[in-house]
Design brief:
The chain has 6 helices and 8 strands, in the order H-H-H-E-E-E-E-H-H-H-E-E-E-E. By secondary structure, the chain is an alpha+beta fold. The structure holds protoporphyrin IX containing FE (HEM). Protoporphyrin IX containing FE binds next to loops.
């Protein structure tokens, strides 16, 4: 996947030195990879709310006003009823055909509704500039240990090898 993203970016940028705004819209495969990463490792693993009025769920159960509720974005993104083989990294889940068959709230890295994220510019620029310069390899001796805090973190850091691309 990394090689395919790099090739896509190299083809877009060709012999230019910098990225241009229009380039971002052409990064089709890279964008699918970013979304698939946000699915498996949502930086905000959950959100919570205090109910301003009672709520009744489709199955008839209710919660009273004032209840504190929490939604796990992490678990929504790994729900096997929605995502086939949820632990497999497959960017094609975000192809236009596959997205159109899915509920709009199956993928919620930026939450939804009135209080969703205002900073959804994703990480395309950073990804492009990094992949043009380096090949990234995980350090198998130090896999990240996920720990859910307000953001999803790694308890032991994120250890990578960087190989310079000439
Ligand atoms: C990958 C990066 C990011 C992710 C995954 C993310 C995710 C989220 C999520 C899930 C929420 C909803 C929180 C809740 O409902 O309790 C949120 C809200 C928010 N985000 Fe982000 N965010 C990201 C980057 C950014 C950036 C770069 C900015 C600033 C430019 C930003 C600004 C905000 C603000 C101001 C809110 C609150 C909006 C409101 O309550 O009306 N976010 N974000």
């Amino acid at each position: 996947h990394q090689r395919r993203c790099r090739e896509e970016i190299q083809e877009i940028i060709r012999d230019r030195k910098t990225l241009q705004w229009e380039d971002l819209g052409k990064m089709t495969y890279s964008t699918m990879c970013i979304r698939e990463s946000l699915r498996l490792y949502p930086p905000v693993p959950g959100v919570s709310r205090q109910l301003s009025k009672p709520i009744t769920f489709p199955d008839g159960r209710t919660l009273p006003e004032g209840s504190i509720t929490a939604i796990s974005i992490f678990l929504i993104h790994r729900n096997p009823a929605v995502w086939k083989d949820p632990l497999v990294f497959d960017p094609l889940r975000f192809s236009p055909e596959n997205v159109s068959g899915r509920h709009s709230h199956a993928f919620l890295p930026f939450s939804a509704g009135m209080r969703n994220c205002i900073g959804q510019q994703e990480m395309k620029v950073l990804l492009a500039l990094t992949l043009l310069r380096f090949e990234l390899l995980p350090d198998p001796t130090k896999p990240p240990l996920k720990i859910p805090q307000i953001i999803l973190r790694s308890k032991n850091g994120i250890h990578l090898f960087l190989k310079k691309i000439h």
